[in-house]
Amino acid sequence: MATKVKESAAVATASSKNGGSLISDDKLKQLYATMLKCRLLEEKALGLKKMARFKGNYYAAVGQEAAVVGAAIDLRPEDAVAPSHRDFITNFIKGVPLDAMFSQLYGRVTSPDKGRCAPAHCGYAPLNIITPSSTIAAQLNIGTGIALANKMLKNDNIVVAFSGDGSTSLGFWHEALNFSGVHDLPIVFVCQNNLWAESVPLRLQTKVEDISLKAQAYGFPGITVDGNDVVAMYRVAHEAIQRARNGGGPTLIEAKTYRWYGHSSIDPAKYRAPEEVEEWKAKDPIAAMERYLTQRNLFTPAWKQQMNESFGKELDEAVDFAEKSPQVEPIECLDHVYSFDIRGRELDRKTRTPKYQK
Amino acid sequence: MPVSYIEAIRTGLAEEMRRDERVYLIGEDIGVDGGAFKATQGLIEEFGPQRVIDSPLAEGVIVSSSIGAAMMGMRPVAEIQFVDFITPAMDAITQQAAKLRYRSAGTQTCPLTVRVCYGGGTGGGLYHSQTNTTWFAHEPGLIVVAPATVADAKGMLKASIRQDDPVLYFEHKRLYRTIKEDLPEGNDFIADLFHAAVRREGKDATLVTYGYMLQVALQAAEKVGQETGATIEVIDLRVLNPLDRDTILNSVAKTNRLCILQEDHRTLGIGSEISAIVAEDAFDCLDAPILRVAAPDVPAIPAAEPMEQFYMPNVEKTCAALHKLLQY
Fold first, then answer.
1. I need a surface site. Which of A52, A190, A243, A276 has the fewest CB within 10 A?
2. Residues 34..53 of B with a Cβ closer than 8 Å to A: which?
3. What is the CATH number of domain B3-181?
4. Could you give the CA distance from residue B127 to residue B27 in angstroms, rounded to a whole number?
């Protein structure tokens, strides 16, 4: 069942009779614009991190934008996203306000998690983005449960669950795929195979060359895509999402890609050969799409310049908003443990038991 | 008509499933087979395989899929056949369920119930006899309950399903068919999920316990009473997390002596925490050192009967501790 899409973006979209694309020009431009904005957003976050403007760490997906944008760009608000620590940009793609995202990095009271999670571990309830933990692959199983609920509730909402090559070594990854297969759940697994799980190369992670092969074991399609080709990624994800929406069950998409930087903002990634990094930087998904749009007369440097400027301004405003947002009150450490308040119990030992709630 | 503990669980589940169509069950062998102990017998016939799901043999996804479904408004009741097999679900329970509300600042929650069968004394050996309640009582974000009576088996299960928090519901396999009770009037009663209960009034010593050990505690209290004339107050914790400190402290303030009886092994168990609470908050009330009756610190319960008996806390060991406490 595992098949490969090795065709380039140009070939992938020139398949209709008149030689035109099956994807509208507007969508092609939107794919490019969204990738560009994701890149600007993450470079901004990394820059702030370098200047120690926020604490903790940042986990950039720079270089992998095509895989994430192609998979998430058409999701509805009701669709759920199960992100990993490297999928901060899924929030932006799904429509989370930049103010909320930068507040998350800064851990301010205006963040969706009120300063609880590490930077980039961002979820957003109004748009059904699971607030991620750092334990690898856990989000896939929670996503599987959301898909199960959607199936039980007989709606046509779907789940896109992101993971990396390293996560495929965990039992949880396989439990999620197996369960989804058994129950034909409306879920799309997007595995961003960036060849490195922190410092461990793929060959020490799995014996197979293509992770998509693993879907065979679970009885649903697995497909390997050039994860730096946003058009190919979009086409495959679009098909998988439609399949899931229509009751066809899960799909595993392996997006072969590469992260330009280290595992996190403190990782210089010296375990990788500089030639390898340069080779992949030459396959920059944004530059590739720029060339493709140029061929189709859909790109002008002025358009890019205008986006750089206007989105740069939006980012600056979001950073300003985050930096001016208040810190959380220390006492809020005691909140959101249960559905009932424990402040009294913790602070006043005479007030010991919570009241029962209906 | 008196009903058994396991019948109380079964009817509690059925009533909640009839009341609320968001309630569904998931676990190993719970459907066609009706569960390893038959707790869910007959439910697949009434509610169908969509709501009584025979899961793959994978505790991790049993619990973690329930978390996701609960996030979407469902009310899953997951079954862990033996607590000895709960370890593949540890990430799901301790890192996801316990922390989801906290890490999302209350915007994402998982109201799920995990029914966990536990306990020794049935010759089940190392991996069908463990207790392990302490693992979860240590996790803020989880409610951990261990009903010791038939009424609680039903009432606390129904309350757990309605509670907007993840609840671990520990049911002792030895209670399933050994205790029977007439249930309170009316079918639709729910029990309190936050307080301990005084099961036997007394004034000379307090014996705190939970789960199956309540049976042992009541017998030991009776026996010691007959032997010495002392009256022993028996407290059934019911809830292991968050602990009801008041009921324990109020009792110790009255009796001035405390013994804790637990089936779990000794070190850093529930008894350790209760000892610390009383030492911190009721030190002036104590007339004797606090005593614990617990299983020894060995990895698990051996299968051979002589060793299993050595391991299990029982009436004899509890009586010996109570005598020591009263004579101090």
1. A52
2. 50
3. 3.40.50.970
4. 18
